[in-house]
Amino acid sequence: MDFEAVIGLEIHAELSTKSKIFCSCTTEFGKDANTHCCPVCLGLPGALPVLNKSVVDYAIKAGLALNCSINKETYMARKNYFYPDAPKNYQITQHETPLCSEGYIEIETEEGVKRIGIQRIHIEEDAGKALHEGESSLIDFNRSGVPLIEIVTKPDMRSPKEARMFFEKLRSILLYTEVSDCKMQEGSLRCDANVSVRPKGSTEFGVKTEIKNMNSFKALEKALEYEIERQINAIKNGERIVQETRRWDEAKGQTIVMRSKEEAHDYRYFPEPDMVYLKLNDEWIEGIRKTMPELPDEKKKRYIEEFGLPEYDANIITTSKELAAFFEEAVNIGGNPKTISNWIMGEVLRILNDREMEIKDVKFTSKDLVKLISLVEKGTISNTIAKKVFVEMFETGKDPEKIVEEKGLVQITDEGAIRDIVNKVLDENPQSVADFKNGKTKAVGFIVGQVMKASKGKANPQMVNKLVEEELLKR
Amino acid sequence: MAVDKSQVDYVAKLARLEFSEEEKEKFVGDFNKILQFVEKLNEIDTENVEISISSYPMFNALREDEVKPSLSLDEVLLNAPDKENGYFRVPKVVD
Q1: Which residue of B has its CA nearest to A35?
Q2: What is the model's pLDDT at position A261?
Q3: Is residue A66 packed enough to be buried (19+ CB in 10 Å), middle (13-18) or exposed (0-12)?
Q4: B56 within domain boundaries
Q5: Residue B86 near residue A42, CB atoms below 8 Å
Q6: Do residue B92 and residue A132 have CB atoms under 8 angstroms apart?
Q7: Is A18's CB within 8 Å of B93's CB?
Q8: Which of A22, A159, A188, A304 is most buried, by CB atoms within 10 Å?
Q9: Domain count within chain A
Q10: Above 0.95 for ipTM, yes or no?
Q11: Is A261 in the same domain as A129?
């Protein structure tokens, strides 16, 4: 029997506000424990939470970017549970009335564009952080009250790869809109997954498990792969899938049971009595719509139409807002869009991936890249040399024209000079000449390579090709 | 709707509270009285009445996104029954 997976995601993103959701403490990350706390975020008796307007703005922005309807009348809810990182013994969140609902994101699967539904987005406060040490747990409340949006998808994903693509696209949109800095290593973007399996073609859902603690795109994909296989094997062995929460153990490469739903929480939600209704009007929502930047999908479409980029290139360049900005700057300075795209897709991304860096960290500017490209186009340097100049430019941030001048890398286009090198190489390699005469055309490639080497890569490659053939035929 | 002892046990467990058998019996009676009292509201026809969340005629109590000084670490930890290196220390919890 063939099985298919059914996956839904719950994503928490910390918002980019300066202060917390219900008090004026800073949201800054990585400072000494318990130094960003006040009576409100410590849950001291009598403290009164007051909603941060920017939280509402960011959540609306996220909702609009994710094609949601914005709900004009909502209220906060109290979710009751005991855990030492929640100082009030409840979390202020939204329950019956999320701020945004019914949206979607489109992802590009191998079968074409697929729409993944978003059920809801609501605002809530983050909890503190517990460090487990020996026989006790240590609690830091700096994160308590940091504003979050929780984004809940519909169970529309059918493979770990689709889940990963969705999560990547979502991150890209949240970064474009600057709703969240999405630093997964700092926990400002976190993802849980609900997953079940069922016989292919079935329309009923199987029993689902929830997986937590997946801290990277790769972890999400790996954890889902493991869990789907575990569930399928269990069913094949006649076992029953139990509804439970499991944790991804990166080191073991397994999902491990945390708690079963039999001991499920009863949160006893009720409207938060410390807060009043939130009422939005069209003016507020439209005001935020006006601040919406061009989103990855729109940008991609424009790159294809306006600049004639292949869809693949446009997709990759628009994944990162900064990379897209770099590309557009270069195009505006006056470079050929396709050539710039080729450089970005090739050398630029290769070196960034190698060094685990991002475009915003590089020393050279888009202007330098355009200059480098123009040096190739004018024939001053060859493509091969340009790649070397690029590395130098990357390391030092120096002007490419200066690098070429200082290192004497200007291309040799003097036919006589190249012909001399060709003949010298042919003299030194009689075997290759003989091979060529015996019909081994591969010898040409070898000779060309040797000539380029002898010229330290500076000879014009087209001329070398032409002259090597000419001189070989003369012999 | 009537409450029995098992529901009192359940609510006590959720609230992390412990009671004697006598107290629980008393709560069964109290809870039922409270519910009966509230049930009176069912006599009213609420067919076309919107749900009311808050009795205040207010909405949008909001603040600007401004950072103000937090408490000092000493003040934060003033009520902590146990602490270590600036952290609150609690019995080990593993989720």
Answers
A1: B73
A2: 58
A3: buried
A4: no
A5: no
A6: yes
A7: no
A8: A22
A9: 3
A10: no
A11: yes
Q: Do B60 and A35 touch (CB under 8 A)?
A: no
CA end-to-end distance (rounded Å), chain B: 35
Residues A124, A236 share a domain: yes
Residues A395 and A444 grouped into a single domain: no
Q: Which of B59, B84, B93 sits opposite A279 (nearest CB)?
A: B59
Whether B90 and A82 lie within 8 Å, measured CB to CB? no
A263 plus A116 within the same structural domain: yes
pLDDT of residue A475: 78
CB of B73 within 8 Å of any CB in chain A? yes
Q: For the residues A168-195, what does the mean pLDDT come to?
A: 95
Q: What is the DSSP string of B44-75?
A: S--TTPPP-S-SSS-B--EE-S-------HHH
Are A383 and A467 contained in the same domain?
no
Residue A402's domain spans which residues? 296-406
Torsion-angle region of A197 (φ positive above 0: left; ψ -120 to 50: alpha; else: beta): beta
Q: Model confidence at A133, in pLDDT bands (50, 70, 90)? A: confident
B residues 53..72 contacting A (CB < 8 A)? 53-54, 56, 58-68, 70-71
Contacts of A56 (CB under 8 A, 6+ apart): A99, A123, A278, A280, B62
Q: Is there a single domain that holds both residue A256 and residue A350? A: no
Taking CB atoms and an 8 Å limit, are A275 and B61 in contact across chains?
Answer: yes
Give me the DSSP letters along A394-409.
HHH---HHHHHHHTT-
pLDDT-derived band at A17 (thresholds 50, 70, 90) equals very high
- The partner residue sitting opposite B67, judged by closest CB among A18, A50, A53, is A18
Asked whether the beta carbons of residue B54 and residue A18 sit closer than 8 angstroms, the reply is no
What's the CATH code of the domain at B33? 1.10.20
